[in-house]
Amino acid sequence: MPKNKTHSGAKKRFKLTGTGKVKHASAMNVHKFEEKHSSRKRRVAVDQVLADGDAKKIKKLLGK
């Protein structure tokens, strides 16, 4: 039986934590920082943990 390939888009966007949760970068953190207030910039700079339902799909794409 052939090996499963890791989804190349998913491996660039998601990482697994040591406990098996899926981390992802927050949205709205690429450009147009002049119009965002400081607290919002700090909030979106932190990685978030994906919801359990979505994490199940992403783990399958990552081959876990």
TrEMBL record:
<dbReference type="InterPro" id="IPR021137">
    <property type="entry name" value="Ribosomal_bL35-like"/>
</dbReference>
<dbReference type="InterPro" id="IPR001706">
    <property type="entry name" value="Ribosomal_bL35"/>
</dbReference>
<keyword id="KW-0687">Ribonucleoprotein</keyword>
<dbReference type="GO" id="GO:0006412">
    <property type="term" value="P:translation"/>
</dbReference>
<protein>
    <recommendedName>
        <fullName>Large ribosomal subunit protein bL35</fullName>
    </recommendedName>
</protein>
<feature type="compositionally biased region" description="Basic residues">
    <location>
        <begin position="1"/>
        <end position="15"/>
    </location>
</feature>
<dbReference type="InterPro" id="IPR037229">
    <property type="entry name" value="Ribosomal_bL35_sf"/>
</dbReference>
<dbReference type="GO" id="GO:0003735">
    <property type="term" value="F:structural constituent of ribosome"/>
</dbReference>
<keyword id="KW-0689">Ribosomal protein</keyword>
<comment type="similarity">
    <text>Belongs to the bacterial ribosomal protein bL35 family.</text>
</comment>
<dbReference type="Pfam" id="PF01632">
    <property type="entry name" value="Ribosomal_L35p"/>
</dbReference>
<dbReference type="GO" id="GO:0022625">
    <property type="term" value="C:cytosolic large ribosomal subunit"/>
</dbReference>
<feature type="region of interest" description="Disordered">
    <location>
        <begin position="1"/>
        <end position="23"/>
    </location>
</feature>
